[in-house]
Write a structure and sequence with these properties.
By secondary structure, the chain is mainly beta. Helices cover 14% and strands 36% of the residues. The strands form two sheets. Strands 1, 2, 3, 7, 8, 9, 10, 11, 12, 13, 14 and 15 form a twelve-stranded mixed β-sheet that branches. It has a three-stranded antiparallel β-sheet with strand order 4-5-6, with no helix packed on it.
């Protein structure tokens, strides 16, 4: 169905901040965001899907465009489940969201319109039209997360907001050995934090990479899906291996045991970034 000079589309978009966003005209946006609690915004009641469409969804606020009012507005509603999710406090370089819209705005122009309304720590990077059945969360086939560390006896104020400080040396050879046990398809209950309602804890981790550049370290984990706090616990386990608290060979037994207590601690959310999301 179309109106004069106004066509129904579905979009997805990518966002940058420590977030990526996806829109739908059937449109797909990519969003980057740096996690920061947004200030409380006005609540809108009785939202009508025919008069508004979702442009951005974060943990604390949404931005919608009202056709009746002809402007962008903030709302604090959590029932819109049209985007991939991360833990509270996690950043994103490639978050994806989607929305349906009746609009004549070209997909490539939507990021410019949205970004004028966003705080400095969130940006929509791109937007494209996708098929009507596209879903940003449920059709994702592969995600890559990066956990950042920096090795220093002192906190670095310029790094500490997005990386975890490790003040002792790490044995990277042992960490690499332990990482190989994590790769593959396993029941990863040992890397799941309490409080999750997920019943199927089998996941496939395609690759665990450890990249060192001076005092900076990245633990990159790519897989088809992750359990609650899974990447942060994997990073904590590898750090404990590097410190000598857990033997590299024991990681295989820890996974087989499914015992969360035997794995490493959950590292803080601030060091984790959703790096990319891939679709077929």
């Amino acid at each position: 169905m179309c109106l004069e000079n106004c066509f129904f589309h579905k979009y997805r978009f990518f966002v940058y901040s420590t977030l990526v966003l996806m829109s739908t005209l059937l449109v797909f946006p990519v969003v980057m965001y740096f996690f920061q609690k947004l200030p409380d915004q006005q609540r809108f009641q009785n939202i009508n899907s025919t008069s508004t469409f979702l442009l951005f969804s974060g943990r604390y606020s949404l931005i919608v465009y009202s056709q009746e009012e002809g402007r962008l507005s903030y709302i604090n509603l959590d029932q819109y489940k049209v985007f991939g999710r991360t833990d509270a406090g996690v950043h994103a370089l490639g978050q994806v969201a989607h929305f349906d819209a009746e609009t004549s705005i070209p997909a490539e122009k939507i990021p410019f319109a949205i970004n004028t309304m966003l705080p400095e720590d969130v940006r929509v990077l791109s937007c494209e039209e996708v098929s009507p059945d596209f879903h940003a969360r449920f059709q994702a086939k592969e995600k890559t997360y990066v956990y950042k560390l920096y090795l220093s006896p002192h906190l670095n104020p310029l790094k500490n907001a997005t990386a975890e400080n490790i003040c002792v040396p790490l044995d990277f050879e042992k960490m690499e050995k332990a990482a190989r046990f994590i790769e593959g398809t396993h029941d990863f209950r040992c890397f799941e934090a309490s409080g999750s309602s997920v019943k199927d804890t089998v996941r496939t981790v395609e690759k665990v990479g450890i990249i060192k550049n001076g005092e900076d370290v990245e633990i990159r984990v790519t897989g088809n899906g992750f359990l609650y706090n899974m990447v942060r616990i994997i990073a904590g386990t590898l750090v404990d291996v590097g410190k000598g608290k857990i033997a590299a060979n024991d990681v295989e037994d820890i996974i087989k045991s499914g015992d969360r207590v035997r794995a490493g601690k959950t590292l803080p959310a601030k060091g984790l970034t959703l790096y990319s999301v891939k679709y077929k």
